[in-house]
Amino acid sequence: MNVDVRLAVGKVTSLAVINGRGGILLPAGFELSEKIVTALIKQGIESVEVFDTSENEALNVLNERKIKHILSLFEIHNAPKMDELRECLINQIKNS
Questions:
Q1: Residue 21 and residue 93: Cα distance in Å, rounded?
Q2: Kind and range of the H or E element at 47?
Q3: pTM summary value
Q4: φ, ψ for residue 24, nearest 5 deg
């Protein structure tokens, strides 16, 4: 959900916040405080993509995306050590 940055305090970013030069200012999954919103406004950011849910639900969605990404990276590998690494990464996400 795209919202005016001034109304985003307490929301969690659903996508990374990117400046005009393509640099990442904030990652997806970042909770926006008043101080951060003020800094984004100073950077010329007018709107941000945020989750339309609670912080816990938002983090669950991000974790699901991360796990899907890891699974896609490892689907071409068919080696026990790679399977072990994949499971280790997924477990790390689940336990964070």
A1: 30
A2: strand 47-49
A3: 0.60
A4: -85, 120
Two tokens at 7?
Answer: 């109304």
pLDDT digits (tens, 9 = 90+) for 9-40: 988 888 999 998 889 999 988 889 999 999 99
Fold of 2-49: Molybdopterin biosynthesis moea protein, domain 2 (3.90.105)
pLDDT digits (tens, 9 = 90+) for 44-95: 999 999 987 766 677 787 888 889 989 998 888 788 899 999 999 999 988 8
Helices (H), the chain: 34-42, 55-74, 80-94
Q: List the chain domain ranges.
A: 2-49, 55-94
